[in-house]
Amino acid sequence: MHSETNQFSLNEDQKAVLDTANQFAKKELYPHAEKMDNEEWWPDGIFKKMGDAGLIGLTVDPKYGGAGMSYVQAGLVCQAFGRWNHAVALSWVAHDNLCLDNIYRNGSDYIREKFVPGLCSGDLVGALGLTEPGAGSDALGSMRTTAKKEGDYYILNGSKTYITNGSIADVILVHAKTDINNRKKGISSFVIETKNPGFKIVSKLKKMGYRGSQTSELFFENFKVPAKNMIGQEGQGHITVMNGLDFERAMIAPIALGISERALEISIEYAKIREQFGKPISNFQMVQSKLADMYTSIQSIRALVYSVLAECDSSEKKQAGKGKIHMNTSASVMFASTTTNKILDYAVQIHGGMGYMWESEINRLYRSSKLLDIGAGTTEIRKKIISKGLLE
Ligand SMILES: Cc1cc2nc3c(=O)[nH]c(=O)nc-3n(C[C@H](O)[C@H](O)[C@H](O)COP(=O)(O)OP(=O)(O)OC[C@H]3O[C@@H](n4cnc5c(N)ncnc54)[C@H](O)[C@@H]3O)c2cc1C
């Protein structure tokens, strides 16, 4: 077993990473959380601030401006961001993992040198463009965006939707069909720059949670991308997609852990100060029972999420998308998400009517918890992956 999964507790280096990220997130991200939620506002310059603090490019070699951390350490940063500002955590993970980590792992030397340092410093903002209006769970098979080769370029046409950071990104890892007749294996991956002609933001989407994180529908109209911006080989994009999705699932699960930790913290505070029947509600055993269940659920999420991140560290990076890692990353985010929904339900119940009010922090956390049942492949798709692995 990998050393980090044997420990079942964080070592000193890991504790230091979590502590640093917690301090940064509490000071720099938490103060923006309420305004981001109310106004669907994005704090410009926040990626640069995270970059200056060494909190971007976590899994990238320092040679390219990264921090050279493990997935476990990167997950701890994500957990801290999720705890203090889950909307920033989502945008950060789209940038740092879905875009940057994938480009770094699968890109050529040219691509690494051109894009990775700017993404690590936060001068460039990244996104991933996979899903489309007609291609969600069946993102590969139903994909309609095309990339047609013309000389040294490919010409992209089509739509992408629900793209996190879509309207603020400088660089997007886009998947498109180079062979429209090949259902899954006709896909190729490109790094595109949004400043170039033919890129359009169709709309900024209004959400029930994570509202400050900018989610958009995008359109490519005769968009020219140099052939040298292709990631991997033509027709091999399904590999980039599938191994990216495994790391994505492992890396978004800690957001749920951070949200749940914060929910327990403020539920304890509220239970101690809210008085009914002449005493704090924390005196009532049915409230205590909920707190005990919430704590136990959080400990279970923590154990699974950390051990799967450690498994990502010890896995062969280009071979993800199948086998145990495929099952376990699905299990991690599925358990973290469904359990967080139950934790948030209890947390709102402890807050009573206050928990139902939009302006309460627990309400903001409650409205966020559903997303991780859907994004990065739904609960149903995760169950398909796990059961297929068990039965084959
Ligand atoms: C806030 C947000 C941010 C996102 N960010 C990004 C991003 O940055 N980049 C990106 O590319 N995508 C992003 N997505 C898209 C996300 O990955 C998709 O929403 C997700 O994969 C589900 O696709 P869909 O929404 O089209 O649902 P559908 O695929 O239409 O599914 C609808 C329902 O049918 C079920 N279903 C579908 N197929 C099956 C099946 N075979 N068996 C059982 N049930 C099935 C689903 O589980 C679901 O319950 C984001 C989505 C959201 C909401």
Topology:
Blueprint: H1 3-7, H2 12-29, H3 33-39, H4 46-52, H5 71-84, H6 86-106, H7 109-121, E1 126-129, E2 146-150, E3 153-164, E4 171-177, E5 187-193, E6 199-204, E7 215-226, E8 230-231, H8 237-273, E9 275-276, E10 279-280, H9 285-314, H10 323-351, H11 353-356, H12 361-368, H13 379-391
Parallel strand pairs: 1-4
Antiparallel strand pairs: 2-3, 3-7, 4-5, 5-8, 6-7, 9-10
List keywords for this structure.
392 residues, alpha+beta, Butyryl-Coa Dehydrogenase, subunit A, domain 1, Butyryl-CoA Dehydrogenase, subunit A, domain 2, Butyryl-CoA Dehydrogenase, subunit A, domain 3, four-stranded mixed sheet, four-stranded antiparallel sheet, 10 strands, 53% helix, globular, disordered N terminus, binds flavin-adenine dinucleotide
Provide a quick synopsis of the model.
With 392 residues, this protein is α+β, with helices and mostly antiparallel strands.
Describe the structure.
- With 392 residues, this protein is an alpha+beta fold.
- The chain folds into three domains: 3-125, Acyl-CoA dehydrogenase/oxidase, N-terminal domain (Butyryl-Coa Dehydrogenase, subunit A, domain 1); 128-231, Butyryl-CoA Dehydrogenase, subunit A, domain 2, CATH 2.40.110.10; 237-391, Up-down Bundle (Butyryl-CoA Dehydrogenase, subunit A, domain 3).
- 53% of the residues lie in helices and 15% in strands.
- It has 13 helices and ten strands.
- The strands form three sheets. A four-stranded mixed β-sheet has the order 1-4-5-8. The protein has a four-stranded antiparallel β-sheet with strand order 2-3-7-6, covered by helices on one side. The protein has a two-stranded antiparallel sheet with strand order 9-10.
- The protein is globular, with a radius of gyration of 21 Å.
- The structure holds flavin-adenine dinucleotide.
- The site of flavin-adenine dinucleotide (FAD) has 23 residues, from helix 6, strand 1, strand 3 and helix 13.
- Flavin-adenine dinucleotide binds next to helix 6, strand 1, strand 3 and helix 13.
